[in-house]
Write a structure and sequence with these properties.
The protein is α/β, with parallel strands linked by helices and about 375 residues long. The chain is built from 15 helices and 15 strands. Strand 14 and strand 15 form a beta hairpin. The relative contact order is 0.11. The structure holds iron/sulfur cluster.
């Protein structure tokens, strides 16, 4: 039996956040039912009994924006798959459309981890980035999830937002730490092309914190979270011991995963497949048994080595030197010797026994360093 992770994409959102470039859409709610039916068909075709599923991540988009019936229809089908006994089953939820009824269904069908999008605790900031909820709605949802017995919750936060001060960021961290979630993701804002923020940025109408302040925000998150008993296991991710997100680790470790839904990608049997991101085209394709895969790439040895390095170096413990050799039949020195030498000398990469990882200073330059691992 092949062990895999399963990603399920729900492309609907009530409103598009101003910073978001994910393949998600507002105003397509009328497609939800047809979409879920198509998605179930794709899932049952792809996820045969030869697979044992270790982790599931229902992401998006906003899975909690599904109606009660659609949610139940989906989760019921998922629960019939060949699931491992200690499965991690995450569903992304956003305050504003998560209800007690939905939490009850999630619990009933085996969701055992919730990832909540919050981003900041100040209502003015939430509004200014296009979120549909305020802080109180988040806290109410968080407590309701606890009442239903969800004991593995992640909260997503963002720093470097327009008009966000260091003091704002400190307050966000402190208030979330006080709620004691098992996992906190602290991402730095990236102004992505195609977003509402990108347009404003181009027009010079967006006031984002200086690079120096952003660095302070990153360091503040790190120190506050470490002090509160979280450990950093990836550049932007912190958890209580043993409660890292196993699904994301599967990506960073380059394990196999299958994605279903519009825009979902898979990495399986050395192939990368990506479905169309056009929701209507996806539904129509599935219903008429037409191809929905938009891109298919067979990874070369070089692709695999590059991805192993730049995905692996995101993890705080980095990559395993022996694992590199085992996977690719070449020593890491043979492939990356001079580059490693350069960065080890500059103390941006550290070698410790079998591991190679970015130093604290190396993390600050991670984008530049990782780009150099492209062969
Ligand atoms: S809720 Fe999430 S997926 Fe939807 S627009 Fe906002 S950030 Fe993007």
């Amino acid at each position: 039996m092949k062990e895999i992770s399963l990603y399920i994409h729900i492309p609907f959102c009530d409103q598009k956040c101003f910073y978001c470039d994910f393949p998600s859409f507002a105003g397509k709610g009328q497609l939800k039912e047809a979409y879920i039916k198509a998605l179930i068909k794709e899932m049952n075709n792809k996820i045969t009994k030869e697979y044992l599923i270790n982790t599931i991540f229902i992401g998006g988009g906003t899975p909690s924006s599904l109606g009660v019936n659609e949610l139940e229809m989906l989760l019921k089908e998922v629960s019939k798959l060949n699931l491992s006994n200690n499965i991690e089953h995450t569903m992304e939820c956003n305050p504003g459309n998560l209800t007690r009824e939905k939490l009850k269904i999630m619990k009933e069908y085996g969701v055992n981890r919730i990832s909540m999008g919050l981003q900041a605790v100040q209502n003015t900031l939430l509004k200014s980035i296009g979120r549909i909820h305020d802080y109180d709605e988040f806290e109410k949802n968080f407590k309701e999830a606890r009442d239903f017995g969800f004991n593995n919750i992640n909260v997503d936060l963002i720093f470097g937002l327009p008009n966000q001060s260091l003091e704002n960021w400190k307050e966000s961290l402190e208030r979330i730490i006080a709620l004691n979630p098992e996992h906190i993701s602290a991402y730095s804002l990236i102004i992505e092309e195609g977003t509402a923020f990108y347009k404003l940025y181009e027009e010079d109408k967006l006031k984002v914190p200086e690079e120096e302040v952003e660095r302070e925000m990153y360091n503040l998150a790190k120190s506050k979270l470490l002090e509160a008993g979280y450990y950093q296991y990836e550049i932007s991710n912190y958890s209580k011991i043993g409660l890292e997100c196993r699904h994301n680790l599967a990506y960073w470790n380059m394990d196999s995963w299958i994605g279903v839904g519009s825009a979902a990608s898979s990495y399986i049997d050395n192939k990368r497949l990506t479905n169309t991101s056009v929701v209507e085209k996806y539904i129509e394709g599935i219903n008429n048994d037409n191809p929905i895969v938009e891109e298919e790439i067979i990874n070369s040895l070089k692709d695999n080595m590059e991805e192993f390095m730049f995905m692996g170096l995101r993890k705080i413990k980095g990559i395993s030197i022996s694992e590199f050799e085992k996977r690719f039949g070449k020593s890491i020195e043979e492939v990356y010797g001079p580059l490693l030498n350069k960065y080890e000398k500059a103390k941006l990469i550290i070698r410790n026994g079998d591991n190679l990882y970015l130093s604290s200073q190396g993390i600050e330059w991670s984008n530049q360093i990782m780009a150099e691992f492209l062969l």
